[in-house]
Amino acid sequence: MFESAEIGHVIDKASYKAEEAALREALLDVQYELKQRADFPVLILIHGMDGAGRGETLNQINEWLDPRLIHTAAFDKPNDDVRERPWMWRYWRELPQKGRIGMFFGSYYSDAMFARVDGGSRDTYDKQLFDILRLERMLANDGVLVLKFWLHLTRETQKKRFKALEKDPATAWRVHDVDWQHHEQYERIRKCAEHMMRLTNTAYSPWLVVNGEDANYRSLTVGRALLSALKQRLEMDHNWQPRSDVAPITPPLDNKLLLESLPLDQKLSKSDYQQQLEALQGRLNKLTRHARFGEHSLVLVFEGNDAAGKGGAIRRITQALDARRYRVVPIAAPSDEERAQPWLWRFWRQVPGKGKITIFDRSWYGRVLVERVEGFASTADWMRGYYEINDFEHQLHDNGAIVLKFWLAISPDEQLARFKLREETGFKRFKITEEDWRNRDKWDDYKLAVCNMIDRTSTTAVPWTLVPANNKYYARIKVLTTMCEALEARLGN
Amino acid sequence: MFESAEIGHVIDKASYKAEEAALREALLDVQYELKQRADFPVLILIHGMDGAGRGETLNQINEWLDPRLIHTAAFDKPNDDVRERPWMWRYWRELPQKGRIGMFFGSYYSDAMFARVDGGSRDTYDKQLFDILRLERMLANDGVLVLKFWLHLTRETQKKRFKALEKDPATAWRVHDVDWQHHEQYERIRKCAEHMMRLTNTAYSPWLVVNGEDANYRSLTVGRALLSALKQRLEMDHNWQPRSDVAPITPPLDNKLLLESLPLDQKLSKSDYQQQLEALQGRLNKLTRHARFGEHSLVLVFEGNDAAGKGGAIRRITQALDARRYRVVPIAAPSDEERAQPWLWRFWRQVPGKGKITIFDRSWYGRVLVERVEGFASTADWMRGYYEINDFEHQLHDNGAIVLKFWLAISPDEQLARFKLREETGFKRFKITEEDWRNRDKWDDYKLAVCNMIDRTSTTAVPWTLVPANNKYYARIKVLTTMCEALEARLGN
């Protein structure tokens, strides 16, 4: 969920200055149009990791826009008045009116999330998220434009930030005990936030994850998102209706894509490979015969560039498995019978029972990759695919499945070399088709689709593993190692 | 939720026969069109009280339609295959394909509801209903038309039905231990079903409550609903999108309305009234000073025909209350400030704190009464009002509020007499306006709106009380008695 917001994004001072004035003016323009028309309110919820610049963002928006038309509310511990009434009461009280912008520092999301962080049950958390969804749907139906920001920092960056603030006597007061306490709980907070965003990301009130490390990047990203959401809504007529699909995706402001941060060239000699392979296959075999494996199942998903070596990696796994335990499911175009069903049906029918292993060679991710890029699915359909895929995978996970997803990444040059080799090698010729060459022309479209896919569908429970695969040996070892470690973590000793 | 389905509806044999042939033919026609076009599947879920005719309904549909194009699945205790996989897996497996009709006898709703009936937590129940909503939204987005029937019986009718079946040796086998067990749990099942339907009634997969007492009424109602839903959907083009509002309302087949079953003329002499009034006021006063009243609050809603005596009833209550504890909120047209907010905002701001009493003289129900009848709100807007009102009131209830809603009902003749009296009496002349006369012309529209309102918003936790009010004395005593009993039930001794 946070992958692209964890690679670090920076906008230099000159670029920032060059854009700031125009952005401010444009924001003021839409704010006045909003005031003039006064036919809907805007509610901005600001959340995120401590130290990621939530307060600064709130101040920045107040500085850029006309603060007289902004209603800001910070929610802290509830007082008696609040405790005596239903949970949502204090948020209703602070709603902005039509034509105005309301900004909440903390909200009902904080209540639900920290209750869960502090040990509340998963069922209670889900129930509260359901309460929130109903509230936000009602607000959307009444015309409220709700925008939700999650300002993000990695654990390391957070620590650095706190240390730096503490060192300077002028800013030391900014770091409180509760900040360090949340720092200790970082992983749990990250996981709970991820769950919350997965279940409450809707087209009518979308979440936007923003890397909060660099103030310039953060401010411009939030400012631009606010501008575009307001503009888009102002262009619609008064008969606006909330859509039921999920929130749109925008590429990062600095065009720095997650996949580009992956070092594709890794070294591993053939002899080292063979030695490690044998050890890992033995380790894997033992794990699948572990006493507790029977309480789980294993679902592996292989996706990657054409010719990235999915088949080869899968074979190195199946060599280590008992043939009665596993099934490899290659996914191509759906059959007639499958086409006559909801799109996920053909994957539901392959769900393994306890103690079983299903390996998908390509998968349901076709929905947000090939179907998106080639236009086989409408935008609304592939967009809701993220939500539906997450829902599907987390049902598997909650039922005990260990779900691992691998993206095998190679460079365009490496792909070209492999394509040529396939054409030259008789017994590999079937592996290369016209379609592969056509896909290659859409390299950049696929790259963006892959990055969006990972941001939307990688979670702590069901993570994506990005595998640098220019070196096949390295890739296979990486896959097997990841599998063994995940199994060990879940099965215990 | 079940009010209209509990007054008993009957269709005589001749009327049934007269309609059956045409209905069957029409159903077959739409079934073949569905098959021809094969662009969406239909899923029918059959639920309800034991003995209300679930099996018979399933058989009836199979008899009326072409059973070769119907896929029926009954879900009982899960076997090993099912238990090893996620909850929803077995339902995915049995989905009908495009062009076909699937019928589920029991479904994911039974799993969730009986887990709650058997003592599962409220949070787990809500979480499961959220899971179901996500599934059904996904199915709707993929084009599946989901129709959900709840066949209903009162507890008494259920008992009678079981006894009759047991008496006849030919049918005694139909009654099982589990039926009597569910009969014992009737009230709990009714309450859990109500909660489930309240949270999962959507425009794209609506619930329909059908009185199951009379086979003719039940079959024709289900058949007609099926026909109209299929026709409506077949008329839409292929770009059909699920709407985000709630399910439409149809009047009962026999046009027998709930309000008409209410005996409006009740007797109570002035002297009896005065005696009872004094006792009730004393009892009420004591209850509001009860030690545990401070953990609760009291929200009273008064609605009714014009001149039904709302004001008079409210005064008899406030006479018994400490002025520091209560507030009477008369609801008229919203102010400018209120109009600039989501519609429920003006009621949220009136939510009382603990130990306090708020009396609404008219209320949020204007949304589904005057705004519906006069066309001030769009159909989609007042329709979603039921869902939103339920959500609002149950948040109050869950927070400890005792919410009581009174509908004061008088006959048209009684109203006319009161209007005339008001015109003749100087100090009452302000109480009668042109608008009152205009509303009178729409008597029937209001009557239907009131019945729908009660069916959609009366729940065990937040019930409506229908008050026959042709006799003012009787009405006031009925209101005070209901209040005292509700307070006693909630506060204990």
Q: What's the total number of strands of chain A? A: 10
- Biggest beta-sheet profile of chain A: 5 strands, parallel
Share of β-strand residues of chain A = 5-15%
Total helices of chain A: the number is 20
Segments of chain A where pLDDT lies below 50 for 5+ residues?
Answer: none
N to C succession of SSEs of chain A:
HEHEHHEHHEHHHEHHEHEHHEHHEHHHEH
Describe this structure in a few short sentences.
The first copy, chain A, is α/β, with parallel strands linked by helices and 493 residues long. The first copy, chain A, has helices at residues 13-37, 54-64, 80-83, 89-93, 108-117, 122-141, 155-167, 177-184, 186-200, 215-235, 270-288, 310-318, 336-339, 345-348, 370-373, 379-398, 412-424, 434-441, 443-457, 472-491, and strands at residues 42-48, 70-74, 101-105, 145-152, 207-211, 297-304, 326-330, 357-361, 401-409, 464-468. Chain A is globular, with a radius of gyration of 24 Å.
